[in-house]
Sequence to fold (238 residues):
Amino acid sequence: MGKMRLDKYLADMGQGTRTEVKKAIKKGKILVNQEIIKSPEYKIDVQADIVLIEGKRIVYEDMVYYMLNKPQGVISATEDRRAKTVLDLIEDKKRKDLFPVGRLDKDTEGLLLITNDGELAHQLLTPKKHVDKKYFVRLKTPLSEESRNHLEEGVDIGEDKLTMPSQVFFLNEEKNEVEIIICEGKFHQVKRMFQAVGNEVIFLKRLSMGSLVLDKTLQPGEYRLLTSEEIERLKKNA
Ligand code: URA
Fold:
């Protein structure tokens, strides 16, 4: 990571605005390697230096990765004046540059990756890569075998082309609960696909995205940091 100005280091780690941290620095509240540093432009060696603010160690985090089980009723945006966003749910966040990787509809639940790693986000979202996404779907009416085949081969959702091949698995006798794996991510894609075969999605939950699988212990609204294995696997496959 190399070197970075002290005021940026502290502001990036959520210790206040740039102006606020400058004031704190000038007041002598910051220790770098046991020494009071009063200049905001002091260059921190991000790997090696030990930075304390009022006795508390501030470790710099460059890229961060959270797995959120998005609850219904929350929007996949970074800011919204009226509605609650997925970022409002991440209470322990330090960085201000986090964003959700892709969007789930307001009434969709499930796996959402939240990060500040723009490169990884691009790799996961670019249509060229065809990253698999798996969803649990509850339908208004049972799905016929014919509709299932139709969905797997590709359906007309009003775009230039039919949807790309998908996989659909029945989960229950009534055939109104299925899993679908798609490798595209068009707006409302899953809902539009089932609509195209005369059905209707009444509940939708994302279960996985590429190699990343929703942690079953996370209740809707709960989140955790990705493990280093999860991060490595995602990067490797992307
Ligand atoms: N497809 C949809 O229709 N909605 C989502 O939220 C995700 C995929």
